[in-house]
Structure formats: structure tokens, C-alpha cells
Amino acid sequence: MPEAHDVRPLQFAYWVPNVSGGLVVSDIEQRTDWSYEYNRKLAVLAEDNGFDYALTQVRYMASYGAAYQHESTSFSLALLLATTRLKVIAAVHPGLWHPAVLAKLIATADHLSAGRIAVNVVSGWFKGEFTALGEPWLEHDERYRRAEEFIRVLQASWTAERAEFAGDFYRLRGYDLKPKPVQSPHPEIFQGGNSTAARAMAGRVSDWYFSNGKDFDGVAEQVAEVGAAAAANGRRVRFGLNGFLIARDTEAEARETLREIVAKADPEAVRGFRDAVRQAGGSTTDGKGMWADSSFDDLVQYNDGFRSKLIGTPEQIAHRLVDYRARGVDLALLGFLHYHEEVEYFGSHVLPIVRALEADADRGAGVPEPIPVKG
Ligand SMILES: Cc1cc2nc3c(=O)[nH]c(=O)nc-3n(C[C@H](O)[C@H](O)[C@H](O)COP(=O)(O)O)c2cc1C
Asked: Which of 30, 128, 185, 359 is the most buried (most CB within 10 A)?
């Protein structure tokens, strides 16, 4: 559990729909669009409706339900230039970038955006993509060893004069990146991944750890383990939780939307995705990590977003969000079915209740008992 003095208001991020097909692998009608025009308007709406961050996805070719994709770093920069307060987190794969080249790009983007860019380092699950690009596909824990070196090279490039680095994957020989980024000590580093290797890496080098969708127990277990790993290194790592949010005026409407999403799932795409993500934490000796125990229904939302149960009335969802905060969640990463409409509904109907409940909790009233949500 977080120290009382360290609990801040919950922050919010949204998944940028920069790949086609929306955030669910379903044939349900979705008004979400992956175009720049749609996303530019969405980013402005999001910053006006209480969102602190936007997270782009990195995908280089069609996967399961994402036939078209816009590249993450360039798209992130475009969104930054269209907004004034929103921070944008660009997802990147170690293995497909030289980290110092990326450090240079991000430093420039930091200047162009007055200090609002961040990165999400993802170790990857899509072997076919690496193979198609002619790059070797490393075994799971080796991908994390490379990801950690990647992060250390980013940090060294951003902070050191004439940076030196001698690793198994990357080397720097007096690299002098100038100008340094605007943000001090450097742009924030998020990471995706929930395996044992991911948790240990977060404790050593990342600023933020993202969890796939989880119930309270799944969150508590990770908060404790990542917190201990960070403390062992004299650090504090912030915790982000994914959730697919369906807020409707009545609980029945929200549950009906979830039912329809799952009923109209594309079974071939979901099964293909399930087979491909066996490359993630489930492939390690302890079998721990993202998607290790996901059901078919869970995978209709790529990142297990239904498992966080942010589905119901604004009041039910707000209670649940504040409950997650009390368990150590610093940031909720949200996906939606119809982004434009639902981001506005979130800002006007859900967020004010969250803020009121947080104020109650911080005044010592304690976090109220959660309103039960079925499913
Ligand atoms: C919030 C979040 C965002 C992610 N975004 C991407 C992405 O854009 N592209 C990608 O290939 N993988 C992405 N991943 C998945 C990671 O590449 C990795 O396969 C996954 O985290 C499995 O890690 P694990 O084996 O440590 O559990 C993301 C993961 C999380 C948690």
C-alpha cells in the first residue's frame, strides 16, 4: 500500500487509437477511427476532459484486428503539436531502434512540445513482426535484458556529458547529446510487461510500470512485488493499470454493451492473438506475465481491459477507480468503444465523482466500500 503522504489524485491516460479496428477485436459497431483527424480532435477533447497522458501503440504490420497502423513516435509528436497540456507517451520496441538515435529524436520532440513527451518501452510479443523486418527474435528474458540496456542508454544519453556505455546489446563511446531534453532529469520512462523479468526491470530502471487489466488481487500482488523491487534499489516506481471503460446511465446498458462486444468478437482474430501472445510471460519458467491466464472473453480487449471491471454507472466506476487508487494505482490507462463521445462523458460524469471521493478519502473518511459490480 502507498504511504498516505504519497497518494496523489489519480491520473488518467487513454490508449491512442493509432491502429485500425479500435480497442476491441469485435465486429460491434465502433465509431472510433484511427485517422489523424479523428485523433487530433480526440487529443484536444482528452486534455479538456481531465486526461494527463495519451499512450500510442507501436505496430509495424497487420496483427489481429489491426490491419492499418500509424507509426508511434511521429504520431505522438503530431498529437503533441496539436495540444498544449497533454503528455504523449510513444511506445517503442528495443531491437528495432538504436536507443541513442531514439534518445535524440525524443530530446528534439521534448523541445518541440515544451517538455511533454514520454516513452513506453515494450519488449514485444509479435514474433512475426520482428521476422518480417528481418530482425532476430530473442527468447523472453533476453528481450528484457536488452530492454534494460536500452533504457540505461536512453538515460545516459539524456543526462550525461560524453556518455559511455558498454553492454551486450548496445555501446556508447563519448556520445554527447545536445541539447539535453527540456524535462529534468529526462522524459518519463514507462514500461509494458508483467512477467518476473518485467517487474525486476521496473524496480531497477523504469519510472512507471503498466499492468494489464486486473482485479484488486492482481493489482495488489504486483504493487507489492514491483514496490519491493524498487525499494531494494532505493527507488519508487509509479503504477499504471489498464482498463476498458464502459460508463452508461444505467448498469444494465453498460453490461449490455460489454455483452454485445464479446458476442460479436472475431473468433479467428482472438485465437490468433492468443496463440501469438504465448511468446510473452507465459513462455517463461514460472509462467508469470501478461495474458498468462486470460480467457477468450478477456482477450477480446487486447490488454485484458474488461478484467478491471470499469463497467457500470459513473458512480460505480468512480468508486472502483478510487478503490484502485487506495491499493496503489497512480494512473488509470483507459480504452473506450466510441472515443469522442465517451471521453467527454467520462470528463463530465465520472471524473467529478472520482475527485469528490478522493477528497473524502483524503479527509480521512476512508475509501467507501466498493459498489458491487457483477461479472
Ligand atoms: C500498457 C502496455 C502497452 C503495450 N503496448 C504495446 C505496443 O504498443 N506494442 C507491442 O508490441 N507490445 C505492447 N505491449 C506488450 C509488450 O510488448 C509485451 O509483450 C508484454 O508486455 C508482455 O510482457 P510480459 O511477458 O513481461 O508480461 C504493451 C504492454 C502494456 C502493458
From this structure: 30
Q: Does 58 contact ligand 1 (Cβ within 6 A)? A: yes
* Mutation to probe ligand 1, out of 122, 130, 283 (largest number of atoms < 8 A from CB): 122
Instruction: Choose among 303, 306, 351, 309: nearest CA to 47.
Output: 351
Grid coordinates standing for 261? Answer: 462486444
What CATH number is given to the structural domain containing 236? 3.20.20.30
- Render 268-328 in DSSP notation, one character per residue: HHHHHHHHHGGGSGGGSTT--STTTT--HHHHTBTT-GGGG--EE-HHHHHHHHHHHHHTT
192-203 pLDDT tens trace: 999 999 999 999
Q: Residues 326, 22: contact at Cβ < 8 Å?
A: no
Domain-located, residue 374: no
Using CB atoms within 10 Å of the CB of residue 85, give its burial: 0 to 12 exposed, 13 to 18 middle, 19+ buried. exposed
Q: How large is the average pLDDT for residues 220-235?
A: 98
Pairing of strands 163-166, 171-175: antiparallel
pLDDT, position 366: 58
CB distance 155 to ligand 1 below 6 Å: no
How many domains in the chain? 1
Q: In whole angstroms, how far apart are CA 26 and each of 15, 80, 225, 316?
A: 17, 30, 34, 25
Structural domain for 272, as ranges: 4-365
